[in-house]
Write a structure and sequence with these properties.
Blueprint lengths: L18 E4 L4 E3 H4 L4 E6 L6 H12 L1 H4 L4 E7 L3 H11 L5 E3 L6 H5 L3 E2 L4 E2 L1 E6 L5 E7 L7 H9 L2
Parallel strand pairs: 3-4, 4-5
Antiparallel strand pairs: 1-2, 1-5, 3-8, 6-7, 8-9
Amino acid sequence: MSHVREASPEVGGRAPELALVDQAGELHTLSTVVADRHALLVFYPFAFSSICTGELLEIQLNIDEFVNDRVQVYGISCDPAPALRAWAAHEGYRFPLLSDFWPHGQVARDYGVFDEDSGMAVRGTFLVDPTMTVRWSLVQGPGEAREIGALHEAVRDL
């Protein structure tokens, strides 16, 4: 049985700051990211897992919708950066995969999507605007695939 302790930020509430490195070792901070566009934060359990691979490939196949002058997508997991680098290279992802490895899962905890029992993030998705306000969110339990169509709807009207 999974156990997520913290509540996710509410729509209309302030998004927690984050500062994480991507698969190339580049640091990303949310406040810098949203200075000129929205951020779509896509938390997922593990690199190389089947549901996560399918979800992120769907984003990659529609990359122009998720990476443009209005929005930037970020995948976030508790995997170490070298694993994310290998996964991104293997799958051809052209967007940042952020490592919430250490302190393990701290950003996922801040967003209320860290599963304490398994040590992974559950599938949480948050659209954050340039004022650091959560504009849309969707949180799925472990083993539940995200409805990718909902992500399309979230960014379509930006």
